[in-house]
Amino acid sequence: MQVHRVRMIYPIRMQRLLKRSCSNRERATHTFNSLFCCLLISAFLAACVGIPDNQSSSSHLHLQPTPAAHLTYVAIGASDTFGTGTNDPATQCWPASLIKRLGPDARLINLGIPGIDAHDALNIEVPVALDSHAHLITVWLAVNDLIDKVPLASYQKDLASVLQRLQAANPQARIFVANVPDLTVLPRFAHSDKQALRSTIFAYNSVIATVVAGQHVILVDLYQTWQTLSEHPEYISADGFHPNASGYAVLAEIFYDTLQMHHL
Amino acid sequence: MTQFFGISIDTLTPILLIVTGIIMGGTLLLALANRIFFKIGVRNVSRRRTQMGLIVFALMLSTTLLSGVLATGDVMTAAVQSVAVYNWGNIDELIEGGHGSLGTYPQWVYERVKRRSQGSSDIAAVGAVLNESGLLIADQTSRQVRSNVGALAVLPGSEAGFGGLSDVASKKPRPVSALADQTVYLNQTCATLINARPNDRLYIYSSRWPGRRYAFRVVAIVSNTSIVGDQPVVISNLATFQKIEKEQGKINRILIANRGGGGVNGVGLSDQVEDRIEKWLPRGVHVIQVKQQGVQNSQQAQEIFSRIFSLFALFALAIGLLLIFLIFVLLAAERRAEMGIARAIGVQRRHLILMYLFEGSVYDLFASLAGLLAGFGLGVVLIYLLGPLLERFNFPLKFTFQPHSLEVAYCLGVIFTFLSVALSSWLVSRMTIIEAIRDLPEPASMRLPLHEQGQRFYQLLTQLWDGMRPGRYNWRRTRRILFEYLPESLFGFLLTLLLTGLIPLLTGFLLIQSGLNTDEIIPFSSGLSLFVFGAVLLLKTLLLQCLLIFARLSRRDWSGNSQRWSAWLDAAAAALIGLSWMAYWALPFDVLQTLGLPRFQGGIEVFFVAGVMMVLGTVWAAIANARLLMAPLLALCARIPGVFVVTKLALAYPLQRRLRTGLSVVMFSLVVFAMTVMAIITNAMQSSYVDIATQTGGYDIQATAYFQNLPDLQTSLAHQGIDPASFSAIGVRNTTTLGVLQPGAPAPRWSTYPAQIVSGGFLQGYGTHLVARAQGFNNDAAVWQALQTHSNYALIDSSALPYDAGHSAVYDPTAGNANSANVPAIPPGFDPKLTFAMNGIGQGDTSFLATPLWVVGLQGKTATKITVIGVVDNSDSAHFGLYVPRAAYDPTRASIVPGSQRTPESQSYYFKVAPGHDPRTLALALGSAYLDYGLETTVLQDVIWQIRGPRILLSNVLLAVVGLILLLGVAALALTGTRAVIERRQQIGMLRALGSSRPLIQGAFLLESFLVGAAGSFFGIILGVILSRNIFAANFFEQYQTGLVFSIPWQQLALIVAISLFASFIGAVLPAWQAGRVAPAEALRYI
Predict the structure, then answer these.
(1) Which terms in the Gene Ontology molecular function aspect does this entry carry (chain B) (predicted)?
(2) What is the per-residue pLDDT for B804?
(3) Where residue A58 falls among pLDDT bands split at 50, 70, 90?
């Protein structure tokens, strides 16, 4: 009984006391168990050490890529380019109609901002256009300048700067510049001095033609090609100034025809 | 509480009452028919008082848990309804419509409605008002300004039917007819906001009357009851505002009160009242059921709380019921030897079951009643503790306890106790008498092959037929065959099918089919679990059969090895099944969809089932392989002899009695698991709703100047007589509108979006929390840090993200969405077609590619490029905007976006009050100092309370539920520890007789208790965190626009584990100490 109690309390010492050598199997079991235990402790310690710290790794910032496209088209302009006058400017503006004609792989970046003039476009729209590495760029910035009575010299300088920067940054891009259509037929100017308005339009279009020729870009002559506007009052939206969806579709056709004429 | 586990409580209560009645009636009849066994059974109650006390206490805990949870549910329902109802006072319906910007219509409409309603039994009162909103008032006496104040111009006398107006101070009636021209009453809310008192002079401004202001004198402050409501409002005579608005003879609101006495009582009549009144109205005027809509909206907005509460209630129920089961399994095990002796002297098995049932019923009757009272008391305590919180709301919430809840709690306790008692006694009654008397483990029962079982069944039927034949009728034999042998044979047959895996396989297959047909996740996943269970059992059976065949073929003697192989296979099968269950239920819930399976549906109860299955699977796998898992521990201890002996002794019982140990570990795991899940959810709620400092950006006062911008504050404060040292920080937040274009979008174009130009605490994450961050940022802190150091980084609110149809659907098909929760989806005042929406990340996404944006408005008319690196939670519609660091903003340059019709910029000032100063006093001082600037000051804490009040209240109610469950769960663990020691007095005696010292026995018991607790805590914490992660990952909470985000409150979890282990230790230490003092002979006799 005494021996039994001692064995229970001091098993290892007792084994030695009784000079009972452990069998190989018991020794192997002990070794295995000890190893397993050590492994568990090591794994736990490794897990503790391996807990990631809370430091940022913002240097590894992954930016959203630009969608790939066969042709990237940037439309620089104002409210007409934006699509003001339609129920859904995003899909019914003329650049949206034009991009459908340019094929399924073409991608539109519409930079039109209602009310913008050429000077503001230089700082707002041009940087974005330069960043987009476009293949095709249309510029239609004249109507707001005309309405806001921007001096012709300033307008000429701003428009030239716009085109220079676009060309300098992206010489491969094809650039088309639209002039001022015949605004005298619009309901908004029904009570205006049409003669004065027409002469202002001529002056602006003359400046545009000069800048276009100087920068070797292509003119989209809306004044000449959109003379049918007077016969189609249904092309104008309720505000009496902007085209509606049908009007924008016709505008898109005019731009498309010009692009076709220049093999694009 | 109106629903319990998706079943209407009105439907559930009668069913439970009937079942309880049957059980109690049946037990009573059995007691009358078996009086001797009733006496023997009940004798144990008085004979073993300590034991009885512990059992009654455990049962009481269970019922307390149930009734406490149900009482809390009632409090929650009452709170939600009170919030909705209180705002509308006694008004049940409104009549609105009309023409013009105010929506006015002739006053004769009111006269007509009033005249005709006199004959209606459903309508109690009719009133007429001209209601206005969006006023700005400036109190010249208190020198405070407040915007967005309403005006209620009341037709004199028409307020009387709604209870009239009463003075806050004197409680005297304040009739509208007493108001002369240019005098007003203010309601309590308005008076508090502008610190107004009677006889103050006010100016009222409105954008409807530019360039004009009207002077008024405050006659009295009236309470928010009756027709007033708790929004800030000035009350005047109808004629006053008719003159101001030049709308003589016109009103824009008719108020209707239904019969029933206010509150939600009249809501039931709204449909009838609307149908009736609509016939009396001219075209263009219609009835709105405002109170009913209010109750519905409030319930929808707070629906998430009732769902979370359901989850908590399920866990509480599981803990309570498991406790009952555990107590009776332990009791039955303890009585095994005694039952063996009883059987040896001729007592039948059914008599043993009856005795045990009678004893259990007596315990239950006492305990459930006491538990009910305790639960009821807890409900009262809850209301008492919530008292200070409710005062902030300024509405009364009474303790409401539905009688149905009381009945459900009692009946569930009785039914489950009865089932537990019946099952455990039946299990124990099927003992081998000799082994039971010697308290040795039950030998493995030999199961007959299926064909032999069939033969036996046939023989029994033949004998039954013989016994029932006329002339040879033997009632005793027939009864034994019918009630003992046949059920046993049938049970054996079913058990064989079950253990060979055939029944689980078939049931699993059917459930999977059902789940696939109905798209329900619970049948599908349960079926899959059963299928795995069955398949592994079948595999095990086949392997054993193969081994036997191999042994026969090789003509070896496998008699010794077969048992060992069987044990190995059992352990392997348990590990395979348990770990498969754990792994499957731990998977994120959307993973099935990625494997091509349909998107399943399920309520929040799926998380409960998942939790229970994970715990069961893990504990089963661990307990079945406990010997293997404990071997390294023993090996480690083998080097220290003293420790080795204690460890060996501590492990001996758990390794031998694995079912009981398993149940204890499951109990411990379930408590810790439930507490972990609850702690994570309540922590998210507390930090989202209750932590005011987080929501206010660390600032105390917000101020907006309506007349002109403030001069430089640092110099002008002292000039105005305010010590600048009273403020520890002053921040400015500009809100402006930006033009935004995303170059990475498929068809980029300019659109508009509000911007928040932020600095200081706002850049450190105060007041906002992120729901998504850009890839490359390891955590939210990194995002905030990057925002502070990079002026071209920005955040955007979650409303700018589109709903992804594939992602937005949550498991629960009845879950609400942004619309049902009355949350605006776009910034107020913005045209949806021209408002920016981000591309490349959807609602619910938590990670995205950093998104470059071009913006106009930060640096005047120049486009600048910023990168969005995080998404701010806007579930409360209070965080619209692009969050841009102030460093990126140039306030000196014109910031109007070309073509934008919006106000260019508004500026808000934020003040952090220095310690020791009162924000309210300083807010009043600021408002007074800058009255000429039209400075409106708001104590942010008050605003948060106003907006988030109901959610704060409900968060605290849920926190109370967690506390309650923790308290009772911990008591249950202590009880389990105590029972584990008490039932083993005989073994202790044996050990003492063998010469084990007292410290050795005490140490072994404490270590055993610790090991069970540690294992349970480990499993509970790990599995709880996994499940919580899955709940949040399944987008469950986001769908309710709750803004809850997953974070692990490690400190709280550590506390829970510490408390649980401590409770278990305390539960074991006293009995262990007593056990050590037991005299061997006394313990061996086991009295």
Answers:
(1) transmembrane transporter activity
(2) 57
(3) very low
Structural domain count, chain B: 5
The SS3 assignment for B580 reads helix
Q: Do the chains contact at B641 and A13, CB–CB below 8 Å?
A: yes
Residue of B749, B845, B902 to mutate when probing chain A, most A C-beta within 10 A: B749
DSSP string covering B128-181: EEEEEEEEEEEETTTTEEEEEEEEEEEPTTTTGGGT--BBTTT--B--GGG--T
B contact residues 722-781, partner A, Cβ 8 Å cutoff: 739, 741, 743-744, 746-750, 774-779, 781
Minimal-distance CA residue of chain A relative to B744: A66
Phi-psi sector, A150: left (phi>0), alpha (psi -120 to 50), beta: beta
Q: Identify the pLDDT of residue B394.
A: 56
Sign of the C-alpha dihedral computed for residues B419, B425, B429 and B431 taken in this order: positive
CA of B391: how far to CAs of B386, B939, B949, B1067, in Å? 9, 17, 11, 40
Question: A111 and B741: CB-CB below 8 Å?
Answer: yes
CB contact under 8 A, A40 and B747: no
Domain-terminating residue out of B423, B444, B465: B444
Q: Is the pLDDT of residue B18 over 50?
A: yes
B840 in reach of chain A (CB within 8 A) = yes
Residues 775-794 of B with CB under 8 A from A: 775-779, 781-783, 785-786, 790
Q: Is residue B624 part of a domain?
A: no
Task: Mark whether B349 and B470 lie in a shared domain.
Answer: no
Residue A183: inside a domain:
yes
The residues, any chain, with a CB within 8 Å of residue B865's CB and separated by 6 or more, are A127, A131, B792, B852, B853, B854, B855
For residue B587, being part of any structural domain is answered with yes
**Distance (Å) from the alpha carbon of B364 to chain A's nearest alpha carbon:** 44
For A178, the domain range is 82-261
At residue A53 the predicted structure's pLDDT band, cuts being 50, 70 and 90, is: very low
Question: What is the Cα–Cα distance from B224 to B234, expressed in whole angstroms?
Answer: 11
- Last residue of some domain: B619, B648, B663? B619
Query: CA nearest A122 in B: which residue?
Result: B862
Residue A14 in domain: no
In a domain, A127, yes or no: yes
Considering the domain architecture, whether residues B1059 and B971 belong to the same structural domain is answered as yes
Q: Is residue B836 part of a domain?
A: yes
Whether B74 and B47 share a structural domain: yes
- Statement to judge: residues B925 and B805 lie in one domain: yes
Q: How many residues does chain B have?
A: 1087
B455 and B382 both lie in a single domain: no
Q: Is the pLDDT of residue A51 over 60?
A: no
- Helices assigned H by DSSP within B730-815: 780-789, 805-808
Same domain, B1028 and B993: yes
Q: How many beta-carbon contacts under 8 Å exist across A and B?
A: 160
Q: State the complex-level ipTM.
A: 0.80
Cβ-based contacts of A57 with chain B (< 8 Å):
776-778, 782
SS3 B334: helix
Token pair listed for A145:
């300048």
User: Is residue B649 situated within a structural domain?
Assistant: yes
Distance CA B942, CA B392 (A): 9
- Is B194 in the same domain as B244? yes
Closest alpha carbon within chain A to B854: A128
Which of A42, A64, A88, A102 to mutate against chain B (most B CBs within 10 Å)? Answer: A64
Question: Which residues are CB-neighbours of B1077 under 8 A, at least 6 positions away?
Answer: B998
Identify all chain A residues contacting B636, using CB atoms and an 8 Å cutoff: 33-34, 37
Same domain, residue pair B1047 and B1030: yes
DSSP B297-321: HHHHHTHHHHHHHHHHHHHHHHHHH
Closest in B641, B749, B850 to A10, CB measured: B641
Range of the domain at B46: 1-80+297-444
